[in-house]
Amino acid sequence: MLADENWRLRAAACEILADRPGAATLAPLVGRAADIDWRVRAAAVAGLSKIHPLPNDLALRDKPLDDRQRALLAWLDAYDAAAPGATLKPELCELFADGSYLEFGRPLVERCLTCHVGYKQHPMADSGACASCYPSIYADWYGSAHAQSLSHLQLRTVRAEDRQVAWVSFGELRGMSCVECHAVFERAATNPAASPPATSSGPAASKPGCPSATGPAAAADESCARCHGEVDRQWRQWLAGRQPHRADWPPGQVDLDGSRDTRTCVDCHMTLVSTSPAELPHRDHRWRARRDAALLADGIALEIQPHADSAGATCVRFTLTNLAGHDYPTGTARRAIRLYAGPAGADDLPLLAAMSPRRPGWLWTDTQPPLAPGEQRHYDLMLPDSAQSVDYRLVFFRNTLDPNGFTNVITVGTVAVTPSASAEQAAAP
After folding, report:
1. CA–CA gap between residue 28 and residue 33 (Å, rounded)
2. What is the pLDDT of residues 195-253, one digit of tens each?
3. Which of 118, 208, 354, 361 is most exposed by smallest CB count within 10 Å?
4. Among candidates 201, 202, 194, 212, which has minimal Cα distance to 124?
5. Does the pTM of the predicted model rise above 0.85?
6. Which range marks the domain in which residue 258 is found?
């Protein structure tokens, strides 16, 4: 109802949520406070004001868009300050993720751009300036999601001249440049004599203030966390907790008692590469992520063990273990992993489990929370006595709201279901 094309239904949904105040219901009201229709905004504002006051004129038709959204962001600041245990502001991407019938003014768009574009004032912010000294790294970056990060933003606004809905235009902006991560130029500015080291992709840059490469720890702590703060928090949870890993023996098994992990974000997402015998290894700047099937498979283990239950019925236990240094899956609540399994040869495998990141405002009823760092979870599949083997498929979904959205098969296979089947035979790759 909150995204229905009929404003009456959107307004009614806001009124229903307003009668159930709490963090889970406040979040969708924040998004509807930016609705195109002022009557929907009025219902959302009334609901939000039950928790923390908002200006009474926020939802008026003639209230300038930018003024409305500055007031809304100020409300988020005040709410978070009063309720630090259930903050909403860090979840702006999720609060406004469903852009249906929302309008975005300059204050909200600028907030989005702090991550999707970031710092643009440095004289070398145009990444093309880096290509002459770092051609291989530049080529990696150019094809990455970071370089095209504005393609993730589908923001609508209402044109002032004719009150028609239109997509927000970003002009020449396309995404994040090199300086967003390589912030060492700030140190170079205070020490003009400092020069970046020679790299594998070319000679040391001679341009003053060149944002040269940072070390892995700096990249993880100072760069990645700036836009991926929740994942950084999960990674620190992983460092402080147990760290399961694939056992050296027997094959396919998981050792739950891992040693201390010293990896950072770059170790998994920016592998060392060398493009020619004459080139020293450097970090891959394509940032392995959801489109890399091998990376997805490295982050999770699927063990399959057939057995007979207490009544002698045939049962197969699927065990998922999170081997990544963060939640699995992580990121937006629109992502998910789904485990399908059933008797071999079936046209459509039944859904056995579905997991999505939980975020304020996403009132999921058909998914479980993601696997926490190091978590292990079991699922039992009961089978008819006639079943001889089971087909299974573990799939990553980028956007569960898009029926034609990107998917990636993490692992797929068939396993015998006789209770005597060994763990080695049943282990998924």
Report:
1. 9
2. 333 333 443 443 555 655 444 444 556 678 888 888 888 998 898 888 998 888 777 78
3. 208
4. 212
5. no
6. 242-283
